[in-house]
Design a protein that fits this description.
The chain is built from seven helices and 25 strands. By secondary structure, the chain is α+β, with helices and mostly antiparallel strands.
């Protein structure tokens, strides 16, 4: 929030002027919080303290300000002689005496001036002020959100591990004892568990609200935010899910998507605890315990951590969509390379579907597909290569009894020839290529119980 005090010109800056770069912040925080009491521990030259006072005067507030200067507790104050203190005292008397007091005393004795929970802004302006004095003043602070430090160094920060009331202000950091990590309040609803979650801030421009717990993919950008829509496993690029929404995101609004980590508070009562879930191919944004079948993509979303109405989904979007384009993902085969336009479609655990409507079905030119030397059967089964029918009910590849036997050596073609009804339709060339020699109708395939896939798959072009 920007306010007018940010643009005030400092009325007083003296040496050392190192704190002067923070003066706009002190101007701003006074106007924004409208405190009743401001206390500065360790006032020296007065640059910081009088910036608070100037903002109080400018905004016509009824704030009381107190500067505590101690030459007894603070070793740093040895650098400042009485002339500096007297200058602070004089300037305060001339400009702010009606609401400001400069106190020279030890910090523990100065504490007696303040009741518990009476200080709205506590500014600690000393690097040698030890922890015991800070603890003394903490009960006097009305809200820990407005404690500021200057010239402070510390070996460690110890958060309260048994906090009972969670802070609800944006930017608040506290210890989450349930997840045993620091938590950051986003100010928009979700709480980020540091080190256990990764978020992406996105924009919803779909025209409708995206609900909490929905799988989304990136559709583009609007300004400096990626735009998202509901993902679905039946098409590319909608299958390239980026994560799961961790809040309701209305239209034309920014929100958070969990890329990795937990999404809480969603109904998972219909799922099995510990079950892996996959992007649905039928319901946009949804996930299912059953991986979609071909020709759809298989996109792992994560697993069910708590299967209750107020459940928890642990998101793990670490895998690219599998099932069509990445022939290495299942560990069954190596790479297939199209040499003259044959199209690769999809794979199941043991089968590869290849389309060759272009150029074979349209021109009669044999489709040539090369299986490279990385071919292997690491899954321990013999994959079959099937084919699908083009729109004219002809096979892009010549077909046999529905399979090409397991190839142990793609560069020994003499042992691996594919026959159909006594006529060679596909063979391996001496270079290790699969050569398609002709077409065959789907009626013939049906009559001979030869496996094939209909032309519906042909509409899903992938690698070519």
């Amino acid at each position: 929030m920007i306010n007018n005090s940010l643009f005030l010109h400092p009325a007083r800056i003296v040496e050392p002027a190192s704190w002067s770069r923070h003066i706009p912040f002190s101007f701003w925080i006074v106007e924004a919080s409208k405190p009743e009491v401001i206390v500065e521990l360790g006032t020296h030259s007065g640059n910081s303290y009088f910036s608070f006072c100037q903002s109080v005067r400018h905004n016509c507030l009824s704030t009381h300000c107190y500067a505590i200067h101690s030459s007894f507790d603070d070793e740093e104050s040895e650098l400042y002689d009485n002339d500096i203190f007297n200058a602070v005292l004089t300037y305060n008397k001339e400009h702010y005496q009606d609401f400001s007091a400069v106190i020279q005393n030890t910090f523990d004795k100065a504490l007696s001036f303040f009741e518990d929970a009476s200080i709205d802004i506590l500014h600690i302006n000393s690097e040698s002020l030890n922890n015991s004095f800070i603890k003394l003043f903490l009960p006097s602070a009305r809200s820990p959100e407005f404690i500021t430090f200057n010239n402070l160094s510390a070996n460690a920060i110890f958060f309260n591990v048994s906090i009972t009331t969670l802070p609800n202000a944006a930017g608040a950091i506290y210890w989450d004892n349930t997840d045993k990590t620091l938590a950051i309040n986003s100010g928009l609803g979700p709480i980020l568990q540091v080190g256990q979650e990764q978020w992406l801030r996105v924009r919803n421009n779909t025209g409708v609200e995206i609900q909490d717990g929905k799988v989304v993919y990136i559709t583009g950008r609007l300004g400096n935010r990626p735009t998202v829509a509901l993902a679905r496993a039946d098409a590319d690029p909608a299958a390239h899910a980026i994560g799961v929404t961790t809040q309701h995101i209305p239209h034309n609004t920014d929100g958070f998507v969990t890329i990795n980590g937990s999404v809480r508070g969603i109904d998972l009562s219909a799922y099995t605890s510990g079950a892996h879930v996959y992007l649905s191919a039928t319901n946009a944004g949804e996930f299912t315990q059953t991986a979609p079948s071909l020709p759809n993509y298989v996109v792992r979303v994560g697993y069910v951590a708590v299967n209750l109405n107020n459940g928890q989904l642990d998101v793990d979007m670490g895998l690219e969509p599998t099932g069509r384009s990445n022939f290495n993902e299942l560990g069954v085969i190596g790479k297939l390379q199209s040499l003259n336009g044959a199209k690769f479609n999809s794979i199941s655990t043991n089968n590869i579907y290849i389309g060759a409507t272009s150029p074979s079905a349209s021109t009669g030119t044999p489709a040539v597909v090369k299986m490279d030397s990385s071919y292997s059967d690491t899954a321990g089964s013999n994959p079959k290569i099937y084919v699908w029918a083009d729109a004219a009910n002809y096979m892009g590849f010549g077909a046999s009894l529905g399979q090409l036997d397991y190839i142990t050596d793609p560069f020994s073609p003499q042992d691996h020839v594919w026959y159909t009804q006594g006529t060679e339709k596909m063979r391996l060339s001496a270079g290790g290529n699969l050569i398609v020699l002709g077409n065959i109708s789907t009626a013939t395939l049906k009559a001979n119980n030869i496996p094939y896939v209909t032309s519906s798959i042909a509409s899903h072009n992938t690698l070519s």
